[in-house]
């Protein structure tokens, strides 16, 4: 109990100067009971080494992520899946992430840019800023001495060339090659590589050999030459589409001289290709295998392979198998694969569900932007997200996402600097994201999202460890 003199002194001081602080009686308690006073609002961070993404919404602390720094101890694989509907910030995240990674000298990035407007891809501004010329694959431009990638480039091993030819044919046909067609393709490819030594073999050579097989090919298998020709007819017709069909000009000649595979950023501009046509998965298969054999080397560089509209890869069993091998191979050489997809249902319910599941399993990092409630629940079941995270996904505002880094789940606000803003928010992005809001509106939206998130955590605190059934 306080003595009368102390009480009188405090009263006199308050009368003269006013009450300057609130005096509270001390509370004696245990650390276990005191946990209720300070509600847990954020999981442990990922460390302080890497590139900054933004800040964790609940705690306000900085959020730093780098798959190369985390690989081995906190990440079993360096691959990353980004999900979310258009207009919620996926594009801005990809671009700032790449720009920040390129500040490290041992980083190199390849982007398959499948979107764009005004005749150029979304990454055109960033490429220009870095002094990079995008590799624009365009059937019309290719006819006028545009960019060509040769599937039979000597830089690709003969095994890789044959695997690529099979994939192109299987994607176009919609089913696997039977043994007879596969044999006809193999002997034609072997003959072309053995006999053409003064130049790069091209697809026209394969078509010609399939139409007119050598007698030795039939004798080796003790079959009639007409049978070998018949076995290879369908294969020749499919390859002919790349030579004289709607995809001609891009793959039917020697690889264009001057493509710089040592540049810090390599952008394949696919924006002139119909995204809903069979051309897109064929194109991605060719680019993927071509890069595997010409770009990925054991030189201790850390490489990032970012693919927009990645459902073109994962939805085709034959293309998915190629990329699945690339991902396994790439981990040994420091490759981080980043797949950007609008909806998980685009890939897990398709013909390549088995292959898609295998690729998703290798993605130890998952970033999920706003989705509709039904889609969020489906995503939560497939990815094993905590219930609280699934329930908050539909209410996320642009720029805020749920990050799951090998089980470490946090809600993160992506931050864009003023220097990055004109490069990240292109005209297309301005119509699909919050970047066209004023700064005051952005701050108000951010504050509202944080308050809603904090209230949600307090209300659902008991569910933080439960997962979606």
From TrEMBL:
InterPro entries: P-loop_NTPase, T4SS_component. Signal peptide: none annotated. The keyword Amino-acid biosynthesis does not apply. Keywords: ATP-binding, Nucleotide-binding. One of its GO terms (molecular function) is ATP binding. This is ATP-binding protein. It comes from Streptomyces doebereineriae.
């Amino acid at each position: 109990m306080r003595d009368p003199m102390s009480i009188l002194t405090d009263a006199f001081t308050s009368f003269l100067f006013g009450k300057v602080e609130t005096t509270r009686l001390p509370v004696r308690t245990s650390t276990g009971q005191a946990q209720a006073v300070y509600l847990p609002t954020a999981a442990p961070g990922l460390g302080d080494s890497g590139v900054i993404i933004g800040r964790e919404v609940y705690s306000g602390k900085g959020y730093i992520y780098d798959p190369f720094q985390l690989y081995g101890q906190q990440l079993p694989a360096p691959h990353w899946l980004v999900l979310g509907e258009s207009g919620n910030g996926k594009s801005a995240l990809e671009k700032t992430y790449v720009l920040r990674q390129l500040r490290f000298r041992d980083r190199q990035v390849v982007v398959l840019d499948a979107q764009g407007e005004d005749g150029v891809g979304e990454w055109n501004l960033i490429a220009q800023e870095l002094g990079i010329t995008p590799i624009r694959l365009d059937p019309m431009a290719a006819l006028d001495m545009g960019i060509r990638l040769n599937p039979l480039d000597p830089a690709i091993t003969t095994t890789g060339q044959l695997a690529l030819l099979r994939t192109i044919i299987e994607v176009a046909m919609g089913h696997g090659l039977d043994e007879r067609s596969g044999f006809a393709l193999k002997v034609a490819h072997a003959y072309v590589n053995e006999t053409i030594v003064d130049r790069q073999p091209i697809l026209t050579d394969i078509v010609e050999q399939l139409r007119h097989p050598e007698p030795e090919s039939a004798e080796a298998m003790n079959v009639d030459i007409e049978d070998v020709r018949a076995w290879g007819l369908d294969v020749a017709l499919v390859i002919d589409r790349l030579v004289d069909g709607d995809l001609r000009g891009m793959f039917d000649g020697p690889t264009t001289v001057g493509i710089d595979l040592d540049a810090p950023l390599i952008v394949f501009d696919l924006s002139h290709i119909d995204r809903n046509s069979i051309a897109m998965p064929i194109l991605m298969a060719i680019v993927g295998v071509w890069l595997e054999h010409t770009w990925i080397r054991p030189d201790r560089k850390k490489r990032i392979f970012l693919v927009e509209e990645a459902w073109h890869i994962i939805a085709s069993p034959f293309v998915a198998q190629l990329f699945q091998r690339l991902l396994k191979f790439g981990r040994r050489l420091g490759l981080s694969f980043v797949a950007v997809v609008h909806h998980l249902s685009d890939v897990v319910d398709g013909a390549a569900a088995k292959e898609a599941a295998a690729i998703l399993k290798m993605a130890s990092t998952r970033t999920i932007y706003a989705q509709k409630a039904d889609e969020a629940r489906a995503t939560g079941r497939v990815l094993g997200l905590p219930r609280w995270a699934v329930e908050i996904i539909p209410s996320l505002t642009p720029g805020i996402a749920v990050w799951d880094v090998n089980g470490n789940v946090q809600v993160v606000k992506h931050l864009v600097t003023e220097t990055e803003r004109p490069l990240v928010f292109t005209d297309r992005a301005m119509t699909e994201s919050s970047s066209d809001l004023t700064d005051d509106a952005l701050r108000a939206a951010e504050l509202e999202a944080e308050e809603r998130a904090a209230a949600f955590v307090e209300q659902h605190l008991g569910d933080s460890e439960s997962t979606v059934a």
